[in-house]
Write a structure and sequence with these properties.
Elements (H helix, E strand, L loop, with lengths): L7 E4 L3 H11 L4 E5 L7 H5 L6 E4 L7 E2 L7 H6 L2 H10 L4 E6 L2 E8 L4 H11 L5 E5 L4 E6 L4 E5 L2 E5 L1 E4 L14 H8 L4 E7 L3 E2 L13 E8 L2 E9 L3 E3 L1 H12 L5 E4 L6 H11 L5 H6 L4 H10 L11 H12 L1 E3 L3 E2 L7 E6 L17 E3 L7 E2 L4 H14 L3
Parallel strand pairs: 1-2, 1-11, 2-7, 11-21
Antiparallel strand pairs: 3-6, 4-22, 5-6, 8-9, 9-10, 12-20, 13-16, 13-19, 14-15, 14-17, 15-16, 17-18
Helix pairs in contact: 1-5, 1-12, 8-11
The structure holds dihydroflavine-adenine dinucleotide.
């Protein structure tokens, strides 16, 4: 039997677990950090196209979906995007903001590689005065409450500590070692779990709504569901739609999948007025050419084809132009599903926030048990918000552990 004198055990060495471990160790705690993967922070490594979109300048509570929209406020305030940016800078990591047509998206990426963020988190774990014992490739076989804390059985021995942190994330991208372990464990301790669903995920369209020739075409779009709107790029795929605008709206559609999604493929443009003025100025032009001034050529040609092929603008009645404009500005889609966990960036739902203290992430009914990161029912928009939640919730627990 291996029993080391640890103050706490953290399950999962992803962004939240690593960050929490560093914060606790810098407060003198002896931390055991366990993960079944062979390397820590694998999702950090692959994130942001290898450059990790590590936070967002504009991060606020409204950027998160949760059963309790107020839950994330306290943690986000106590450890904000500005705190994380200061940490990144203190490690000499150069970063840049991604913009869209000159507009600030607030998304911050490493200039170099996402591996710099992992190296930074590991360096923070080594700062002391406490200690982080990181054990990788370790299979957790059982977790139980003891009289004085928690016992974790693994294929590398048995460990005990007064406090236990669940930081094993959600089940998105199972081939990277993601699992529903956090939910099973939470339920074992009597905590409620909000049904998880894939989020930030490409949407599937029914076969009759698919348009294979458009696969690969990308265009700016405003995707709306209820009162939520996102104006970003959209991509036609062989099975449906993807791109940032679609991933963003997928999280809302997944929550209430009965309502359609509305797409405006010419955001900020009075397309009918543009088509009427094109008709007056260039009467010999065809519809596809007129549309291609505002849309990708393949999409313009496809739309023109759906409205009788076009012909000269001069011969097209305004009523037809109005129908074309309405199709572009208010395309209503009813997705048939999503690409699922295999392609989802995050998981919606998770450990019910009603079970946790928003100040410390400790389970109200199980003293000493904490849950942080994606395992909790707090899901960020696309754009660095999910990592900010990992840092903020990891800090909230790390500072009290
Ligand atoms: P995370 O999943 O990172 O870590 C959980 C850890 O627990 C993993 O190391 C895993 O191996 C381990 N684990 C799981 N089950 C276990 C078990 N049974 N036993 C032992 N260990 C176990 N977000 C963002 O803000 N900016 C971005 O650029 C991106 N980009 C991005 C790209 C892709 C492809 C994906 C899939 C996701 C993103 N995200 C993102 C989302 C972001 O990666 C995610 O929200 C955080 O990694 C969540 O951090 P956690 O530490 O909570 O979980």
């Amino acid at each position: 039997m291996t029993t080391a004198p640890y103050d706490l055990i953290i399950l999962g060495a992803g962004g939240a677990g690593l960050f929490c471990a560093g914060v606790a160790a810098q407060r003198g705690r002896r931390v055991l950090l366990l993960d079944h993967a062979a390397s820590p922070g694998e999702k950090i490594r692959i994130s942001g196209g290898g450059r990790c979109n590590f936070t967002n300048l504009h991060c606020g509570p409204d950027d998160f979906l949760s059963g309790n929209p107020h839950f994330a406020k306290s943690a986000l305030k106590r450890y904000s995007q500005h705190d994380f940016i200061a940490l990144v800078e203190s490690h000499g990591i150069a970063w840049h903001e991604k913009t869209q047509s000159g507009m600030s998206l607030g998304q911050l990426f490493c200039d170099g590689s996402s591996k710099q963020i992992i190296a930074m988190l590991l360096a923070e774990c080594r700062k002391g005065p406490g200690d982080v014992d990181l054990r990788l490739s370790t299979r957790i076989t059982d977790v139980a409450k003891t009289g004085s804390g928690f016992r974790v059985e693994t294929d590398g021995g048995r460990f005990e500590a007064a406090k236990l942190v669940i930081a094993t994330g959600g089940p998105s991208i199972p081939k990277m070692g993601a699992s529903g372990f956090a939910y099973d464990l939470a339920k074992r301790f009597g905590l409620n779990v909000i049904a998880p669903k894939p989020a930030l995920v490409p949407l599937l369209l029914p076969p009759d709504a698919l348009n294979p020739p458009l696969a690969g075409v990308s265009t700016l779009c405003t995707a709306a569901h209820g009162r939520r709107k996102f104006t970003e790029a959209m991509l036609f795929t062989h099975r449906g739609l993807s791109g940032p605008a679609i991933l963003q709206i997928s999280s809302y559609w997944q929550r209430a999948s009965d309502q359609p999604v509305t797409l405006d493929l010419a955001p900020g443009l009075d397309l009918l007025a543009e088509l009427k003025s094109a008709k007056a100025a260039h009467p010999k032009q065809d519809l596809a050419t007129a549309l291609a001034r505002h849309l990708p050529a393949r999409l313009a040609a496809d739309l023109a084809g759906r409205h009788g092929g076009g012909g000269r603008m001069a011969d097209l009645p305004d009523a037809l132009l109005a129908r074309v404009a309405a199709n572009v500005k208010q395309w209503r889609i009813q997705p048939s599903g999503t690409e699922g966990y295999a392609r989802a960036e995050v998981t919606l739902g998770g450990i019910d926030t009603a079970e946790l203290s928003s100040q410390t992430m400790e389970a109200k009914a199980v003293p000493g048990l904490y849950a942080i990161g994606e395992a909790v029912d707090v899901t960020g928009h696309l754009g660095g918000f999910n990592f900010q939640w990992a840092w903020s919730s990891g800090y909230a627990a790390g500072i009290v552990l």
